[in-house]
Amino acid sequence: MPRRTVGRERTAETDVGTRFKTIAQNRRARFNYDLSERFEAGIVLTGTEIKSVREGRVNIAEAYARIRDGELWLMNAHIAEFKGASHYSEHDTLRPRKLLLHKREIARLELQLGRERSTLVPLRLYLKDHHAKVEIAVAKGRRQYDRRHAIKRRETEREMQRATRRRER
Questions:
Q1: To which H or E segment does residue 21 belong?
Q2: Whole-prediction pTM
Q3: Which residues pair with 34 in a beta bridge?
Q4: What totals of helices (H) and strands (E) does the chain contain, helices first?
Q5: What does each C-alpha distance from 132 to 45, 96, 160 come to in angstroms?
Q6: Which residue segments constitute the domains of the chain, with CATH numbers given?
Q7: Interatomic CA distance for residues 137 and 135, integer angstroms
């Protein structure tokens, strides 16, 4: 029987052994946007930023991604300052951070963004085998009535699930 350790974070393990630890999620993005294609991108961080990410001091609720000069940048993502750092190594909490994707993926994203009224939204920031990754999606904004329709559909599905559970008893 494996030994249990106290105080360790829980990580998800896939069938091939890759370990994931979700640091931050953007739950509002799934409600405010219709998401189509998703990408996994690496993120370029400084030493104190990765330490703050490992502590979970990240907020990507207001963040978005932008293509500038053939490179992909994560804008407006808040990574708090690391408490143990000296004042010489402090970082700007809202600075643009470069995302790492292949050139052909960036070109495909650029075509999709030019065609339709869409944007790039980060869905979650996670650690994958000790590397910080961001899951971004091509997102198209929902109108107010679409959001209301999504809420109504979700509530009716819940009611159907409750009714089937009651029948089973």
A1: strand 19-25
A2: 0.72
A3: 140
A4: 4, 10
A5: 8, 15, 40
A6: 13-142 (2.40.280.10)
A7: 7
